[in-house]
Amino acid sequence: MSDKYPGGITDETRQAMDAAMRQGLQDDLRTLAAIIRADAEGRYDRAEPGWRSGVEWTLLWIENTASQLTGGRSQPW
Fold it and tell me: What is the pTM of this model?
């Protein structure tokens, strides 16, 4: 047990809680990307210039952020 975490919370428990939180956020981000992608389908042809690249950049950013959440980092945000 760690002295840094009172109340009987072990380092292993804290790490498991952190991993679960990161996994949940990762799932939420990927769900958001899927919703954006589905909403954008069919709109590219009649969209203003730059709209398509903006959507693609946003989807890439969301996926990169989601991937970093479980990239082996153990430090909290």
Answer: 0.70
